[in-house]
Amino acid sequence: MLELLKKGNKSSLIASIVNLFIAGIRGGAWFVTGNTAMFAEFMHALADSANQGFVYIGTALSKKPPTPRFPNGFGRVVHLVCLAAVLVVAIMSYETVKEGVHHLLHPTESGGLFLLLTVFIVGVILEFFVLYKAMNYVLKEAGVEKTGFQVIFLSFKHLKKASPATRLVFMEDLVASCGGLLAIIAVLTSHFTPFKQAEGVASVIIGLSMFYVVSRVFMDNVTGAIGESDPEMEARIGELVMQDSSVKDVQKIVVIREGEELHVELEVEVDPSLSIAQADDIKDRLETKILTHESVTDVIIAFDETDKVNHWAKKKGQLEKKK
Q1: Cβ atoms within 10 A of the Cβ of 292, count?
Q2: Predicted model pTM
Q3: Cβ atoms within 10 A of the Cβ of 159, count?
């Protein structure tokens, strides 16, 4: 089990630990001050920590090798775990919105401004740190090497190429960071103006933003649990295969993403006069090339004789439209 945990998604582990610490200090500040915005951010951090902890365990379990009972492996476990984690966030989102609405209807003034601002500022700094780490993981998984401020902009561009776990951490901490800033504004507004409902407004917005993350994560992981095709990898692998001089055409190519794993199925056209030994050499050569991609776990290759029809050109055009 310990060996499996070492293979879990590192960004979700870091995020879970940091958010647990943030939840602790925010929970203490809420207990002392009774501030509604602090309660919302406490629930947000606690939900994120639990969610990301589930995801870390799920990604670790998904690395378990196939067994006789489960010959296809455990790649989709991470999606099932993420779906379970979504329920936790949904419940906490509801509680956050409910508390915000209560404060809107019955506004109260809370003290401890210095304590509130200190805790919020520390939390926002830590959340931005986790977000920046998640941005780096997004680029790493997308195969992009950048540093500095370029990481911020490029991470949004390449977010779809990241694993489900990394996307979840990215989205949760993006919303959490923005929620922390909103909470600071709400506390200052409530303290220095007659608008005491500002904290309730912030709580409702934070709760609704959590619901947004729930919906996005739910849809991402439903498609992943079913088994989703990866058009970009299909195009890349198709081009790689077509570079082999023995391959005349690609009749069929399917790349299915299960968690962080990719399963490749190919049907290629070759010269019908080739011997079985020569065809086997081609198969071994193509498998070796395709398996160099770290996410590809297995490759199935079938052969057919060339029919003089350019199937790959048509397929390539369809993939480019999807991109």
Answers
A1: 9
A2: 0.73
A3: 19
Mean pLDDT, rounded, of the chain: 85
Structure tokens at 295: 């996410």
Residues with Cβ within 8 Å of residue 150, at least 6 apart in sequence = none
Domains of the chain by start residue, with CATH: 2-226 (1.20.1510.10), 231-322 (3.30.70.1350)
163's torsion region: left (phi>0), alpha (psi -120 to 50) or beta? beta
Helix 36-61 and helix 77-105: axis angle, to 10°? Answer: 170
Distance CA 76, CA 85 (A): 15
* Residue 90 token pair: 């949904």
Q: Structure tokens of 51?
A: 């969610």
Q: Using one digit for the tens of pLDDT, what is the confidence trace for 103-121? A: 888 887 777 888 989 999 9
pLDDT tens digits along 52-79: 888 888 888 877 888 888 777 777 787 7
